[in-house]
């Protein structure tokens, strides 16, 4: 089992995947910062607030120390049930930005990569055999 694991790890694809995961995590932090620090404050300003994550609806009982608080993180930490649609919208925008950037990267890579010449698909063996039988039958009947 150890030998199989060693062979699996030694394959280039596993190393490529590990590098991709590490770079993806770092890239995700950049996109999160872009969303949280640049885009969402502008959207929040347009909709009347500077912090978009402050858009939420309290669903549960608020402790006396936090009555009237508009701090989403503090309410969640206190265990208050909140419907945080602002945080969800932020996460959705973050996802859309990340998906769009990945789409653009893949699109650019596909344009740069040489396309293999499309060769006509080889005829399946059973079809070739049937054609040979048909041709032999035609020869015998003529």
What are the salient characteristics of this protein?
5 helices, mainly alpha, two-stranded antiparallel sheet, 142 residues, single chain, elongated, 3% strand
Give an overview of the whole structure.
With 142 residues, the protein is mainly α. Helices cover 67% and strands 3% of the residues. The protein has five helices and two strands; from the N terminus they run H-H-E-H-E-H-H. It has helices at 2-10, 12-46, 72-77, 85-112, 125-141, and strands spanning 57-58, 82-83. The protein has a two-stranded antiparallel sheet with strand order 1-2. Helix 2 crosses helix 4. The radius of gyration is 29 Å and the shape is elongated.
Short note summarizing the structure:
The protein has helices spanning 2-10, 12-46, 72-77, 85-112, 125-141; strands at 57-58, 82-83. It has 142 residues and is mainly α. The protein is elongated, with a radius of gyration of 29 Å.
């Amino acid at each position: 089992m150890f030998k199989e694991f060693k062979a699996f790890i030694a394959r280039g694809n596993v190393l490529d995947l590990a590098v991709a995961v590490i770079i993806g995590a770092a890239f995700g932090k950049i996109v999160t910062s872009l969303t949280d620090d640049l885009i969402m404050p502008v959207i929040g300003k347009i909709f009347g607030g500077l912090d978009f994550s402050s858009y939420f609806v309290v669903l549960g009982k608020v402790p006396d120390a936090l009555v009237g608080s508009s701090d989403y993180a503090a309410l969640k930490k206190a265990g208050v049930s909140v419907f945080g649609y602002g945080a969800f919208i932020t996460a959705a925008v973050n996802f859309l930005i990340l998906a769009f950037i990945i789409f653009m990267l893949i699109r650019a890579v596909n344009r740069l990569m040489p396309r293999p010449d499309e060769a006509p698909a080889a005829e399946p063996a059973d079809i070739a055999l049937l054609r040979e039988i048909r041709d032999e039958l035609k020869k015998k009947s003529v």
